[in-house]
Amino acid sequence: MPVDRITDVAEPPRDPERTPFPWTRSGAEWSEPWLPLGSTKRNVEDQRADPGSTLHYVRDLIARRKEFSDDSYETLKSGSGVWAYRRGDKTCVLNMTDDVAGYDGHTLQPWEGLIL
Questions:
Q1: Is residue 56 helix, strand or coil?
Q2: How far apart are CA 49 and CA 51, in angstroms?
Q3: 35 phi and psi, to 5 degrees?
Q4: How many Å apart are CA 27 and CA 42, to the nearest integer?
Q5: For the whole model, what pTM was predicted?
Q6: Cβ contacts of 54-59, under 8 Å, gap ≥ 24
Q7: By CB neighbour count within 10 A (0-12 exposed, 13-18 middle, 19+ buried), where does 72 fall?
Q8: Strand order in the sheet with 113-115
Q9: What is the pLDDT of residue 26?
């Protein structure tokens, strides 16, 4: 990265990790971004076209969140490494460990979550 483009005062600078997320494979939409673009291998154009992409996953999570009521949040009792809570008629359970875990008769694989 050219020295005159470095904006991060940390040592070593983190600027290469903070570049803009490109919208297309070519990155042509950025004529002069505040930080030089690195690889455009990951981009919005490809994410939109891939139903298994992180973009689709996050959009699906947002849509599911909108199904929840605005009722208050209630933490539920759960085993070590398992986070369980209720909001309205929905219960969310997250296994935040590298091991298989259980909750109320359900089996959760490592780092798996369920909406009940």
A1: helix
A2: 6
A3: -130, 140
A4: 10
A5: 0.54
A6: none
A7: exposed
A8: 73-76, 82-87, 90-95, 113-115
A9: 80
